[in-house]
Design goal:
This protein is an alpha+beta fold and about 525 residues long. The protein contains 15 helices and 24 strands. The chain has 4 domains: about 5-175, Alpha-D-Glucose-1,6-Bisphosphate, Chain A, domain 3, CATH 3.40.120.10; about 175-290 and about 380-395, Alpha-D-Glucose-1,6-Bisphosphate, subunit A, domain 3 (Alpha-D-Glucose-1,6-Bisphosphate, Chain A, domain 3, 3-Layer(aba) Sandwich), CATH 3.40.120.10; about 290-375, Alpha-D-Glucose-1,6-Bisphosphate, subunit A, domain 3 (Alpha-D-Glucose-1,6-Bisphosphate, Chain A, domain 3, 3-Layer(aba) Sandwich), CATH 3.40.120; about 410-515, 2-Layer Sandwich (TATA-Binding Protein), CATH 3.30.310. The longest helix is centred in the N-terminal third of the chain and has 18 residues, at about 45-60. The strands form 4 sheets. Strands 1, 2, 3, 4, 5, 6, 7, 8 and 9 form a 9-stranded mixed β-sheet that branches. Strands 20-21-22-23-19-24 form a 6-stranded antiparallel β-sheet. A 5-stranded mixed β-sheet has the order 15-14-16-17-18, with helices on both faces.
Length: about 525
């Protein structure tokens, strides 16, 4: 039986009372949700209720259904504020008269897949990805995918209206993760041409680090039923304080942790997920990281097998070696675009709509979206594809390392982040980028990249290295990425840029000076 929720009408009606726009983070809602670190809570019960109501308002305007016929799934990751926030989300949706399905602990990709596998009209995931334990947020999905930035603006404008509604929707408990796990198991069995009963992963030892997030299901509901030995897996228990390491595959200590665990367990593959499992990284049997450029190379090799000559869309900070690998070793096309996983995904969708076949959109952070999987950035799906490839390689006496062995790796790399102290930081940052372009044109041996679509990317010398200066996606920051093919090269490139950056008095160039010492 479901539970009825009844709403007391909001007396503020349609008055514009509250501005929630500061909680917009790209295509998500993010903010402080707990005072454990002494910060003021932004995602109050009222704010969550209003924003969810704003989403409901947006949803009703997009689909042709009566409120009582609209079905919405709600899930959350392991964050400490999830329970409180879920109550406000569910209450708002039920007050709109929707049928609400409380899915409990779920991955973010699973929440989208609820619209595919269970025909939900929409879903809401409560998550703040890899951010600190006091943060949380909301992600919204429909059958078309996650809401985009203009949609979030509309949702927040709706939220500010505090529109009065008085529905009484039903709330149902719904354990969806087992169905999503079966979806992944079925993919493995189909691509390996066997049944689940045949235990196609028998003989493989695969360990998982779930970062105390929502990824523990992958051990118990995907790997073990297919026969894999998962002994040595770690941090599977949900714990929103993340006591063992940051829940982020890009974090150095997190990758070191899964690397050591893989070697210690004598495993064939080590896997690490972020909190909500939309990102992943892995390590081979020797503990070598398959992350960032190496992860993109591996995913591209898998994606291009069935789409020869296809285009792989990545973010702007990928290495020169990756471009060579995709285009010369795999026969594909490498399309560098802007940072931000949604930017990369949207560009791939746009190219596909224009007749250019893009089987994969992937960011160096680990967000990987396959066209065959609705361009959904899903860490568990990516890992599932990698495991399938590992099994096939093993049947030929090969390893994952053999597949990406020809990827040229830089000798050094560094990211330097300049804080912009100017009030109009965006204009100031763009001006710095424009002046750097003129500076680079005048330098002998420097060449501005002709395939760059964000900031300015410059090759230094003949294969010596490169740097990229761009605006941060959200913050008053100018990130400067430097890679070199020679030991000591990052320092030399940094030294060559000190004179240029020193003339901008609204930039904090201390990090650059440290690298150039």
């Amino acid at each position: 039986m479901g539970v009825f929720y009844n709403k007391v009408k909001n007396t503020e009606g349609l008055n514009l009372m509250t501005d929630y726009m500061h909680l917009k983070s790209g295509t998500d809602i993010r903010g402080v949700a707990s005072d454990i670190f002494g910060l003021q809570i932004e995602l109050t019960d009222e704010a969550i209720y209003d924003i969810t109501s704003g989403f409901a308002d947006w949803l009703v305007s997009k689909i042709c259904k009566r409120d009582s016929q609209i079905n919405v799934a709600v899930g959350h990751d392991s964050r400490i504020s999830a329970g409180r926030i879920k109550q406000s989300v569910i209450k708002a949706l039920a007050d709109w008269g929707f049928n609400v399905y409380d899915c409990g602990l779920c991955s973010t990709p699973a929440m989208f897949m609820a619209t595919v596998l269970k025909n939900m009209d929409a879903s809401v995931q409560i998550t703040a990805s890899h951010h600190p334990a006091d943060r949380n947020g909301l992600k919204f999905f429909t059958k078309e995918g996650g809401l985009d930035s203009p949609d979030i603006v509309e949702v927040l404008r709706n939220a500010a209206k505090k529109r009065a509604v008085a529905g009484n929707g039903m709330v149902h408990k719904f354990n969806f993760m087992p169905e999503y796990a079966k979806f992944l198991r079925d993919i493995i069995c189909k691509e390996l041409g066997c049944s689940e009963d045949s235990k196609p992963l028998s003989g493989l030892k695969i360990i998982v680090d779930a970062s105390n997030g929502a990824g523990g299901f992958y051990v118990n509901d995907v790997l073990k039923p297919l026969g894999a030995d998962t002994t040595g897996s770690q941090f599977l228990e949900p714990d929103g304080m993340f006591p063992n390491h940051k829940p982020n595959p890009e974090d150095k200590s997190a990758m070191e942790s899964i690397s050591h665990a893989t070697v210690r367990a004598s495993a064939d593959l080590g896997i690490i997920f972020d909190t909500d499992v939309d990102r992943a990284g892995c390590v081979d049997k020797n503990g070598n990281e398959i992350n960032r450029n190496r992860l993109i190379a591996l995913a591209a090799a898998i994606a291009l097998e069935s789409i020869p000559g296809g285009t792989i869309v990545t973010d702007s900070v990928t290495s020169d070696g990756l471009k060579i690998y995709i285009e010369q070793e795999l026969g594909g096309v490498h399309y560098r675009y802007r940072r931000g996983y949604r930017n990369v995904i949207n560009k791939a969708i746009e190219l596909c709509n224009n007749g250019i076949n893009c089987p994969l959109a992937i960011e160096t952070s680990g967000h990987a979206a396959f066209r065959e999987n609705y361009f959904l950035d899903d860490g568990a799906y990516l890992i599932t594809k990698i495991i399938i490839k590992l099994v096939k390689l093993r049947s030929s006496g090969l390893e994952l390392e053999d597949l990406i062995g020809k990827l040229q790796q830089p000798a050094e790399e560094s990211e330097i982040r300049f804080k912009i102290n100017h009030e109009d930081f965006k204009s100031y940052g763009l001006n710095v980028i424009g002046e750097l372009e003129e500076f680079a044109k005048a330098k002998a041996g420097w060449k501005i990249a002709d395939d760059n679509r964000e900031g300015i990317r410059v090759s230094v010398g003949n294969g010596y290295g490169w740097f990229l200066l761009r605006m941060s996606v959200h913050d008053p920051i100018l990130p400067l990425n430097i890679e070199s093919n020679l030991v000591g090269g990052v320092k030399e490139i940094a030294k060559s840029l000190v004179e240029f950056f020193a003339k901008f008095d609204q930039l904090d160039i201390t990090p650059l000076l440290k690298v150039a010492e």
